[in-house]
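User: Teach me something about this protein's shape.
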Amino acid sequence: MNPIELAQLVFLAALWGGSFLFIRVGVTDFGVAPLMALRVGIGALFLLLVLFSRRPAREALGALRERAWPLFVVGILNSAAPFCLFAWAELTLSAGVTSVINATTPLWGAVVAYVWLKDRLSGLRVVGLAIGFAGVLALVWDQIATHAGDGVSSTSAALAALAALVAAALYGVAASYTKRHLTGVDPLTVAAGTMTSASVVLAPFAVATWPAATVSLNAWGAVLGLGVACTGVAYLLFFRLIASVGPARAITVTFVIPMFGILWGALFLGERVSMGMVEACAAILLGTALATGFVKRLPGIAARRSGAGAER
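Assistant: First, the predicted structure itself:
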């Protein structure tokens, strides 16, 4: 990965980390369904324009029609449902905390792939799952204690954390479903098709729950940031990275997103960052690195093996 590609990966992490900030800003004014409907609607329009600019209209429409049902399913599993769950969670949790919970997506992906696609889990990957989910429990416990001090009931904090975890789990289900039903389909077609499907699903809920009060300029700015930067531009950048460095390296953006989620929340919203939150984040990221095979062996084990080899 050259310096330009590394800079693109960091910029992508900054964009996706920023999505949690924008959700936190916009959800109070808009509500869950209207905010997310606008996000996926703007993102879909952006991606469709790019798709039709790169491919003949008949060819692009044909690809969308041919895989209409799996695109619709992934649109729900990977966009409509998890986006709404994260937005609902951020009515209680901070942007930083939800970005950390989002980092459990590869953990859920490994579990779903093992159960559904029969992907093999090595002993080290199982250890990674245990470490990662232990970090999740520690984070949830930390948030319950933190919000109790702010006058928020432990039940509300726990339900918000559960909603975010379900959202991350849905991403894991969507990854396995995509692998089974959309392998070989152009990634831009998948992105545009799934965002369009999510827009169709969320539109009626957005209309039914549209806010009666005037929406602030800050909230409208958050919508534009979510739709254009964190959805349209971010997806295009992600696909460019996949093409240039491969999916295995591109997915390492997962490890950087929480850092920006925590940073933006602290800088722009004044969110507190507790030591318990930092420790839980570190455990989740370590567990994710092991569970996804990004780290093949623990340094201590590698050192002992090298020593044993030298003795022989």
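Now, about its shape. The two ends are 36 Å apart (CA to CA). Residues 3-298 form one domain. If you'd like, I can walk through any region in more detail.
User: That's plenty for now, thanks!
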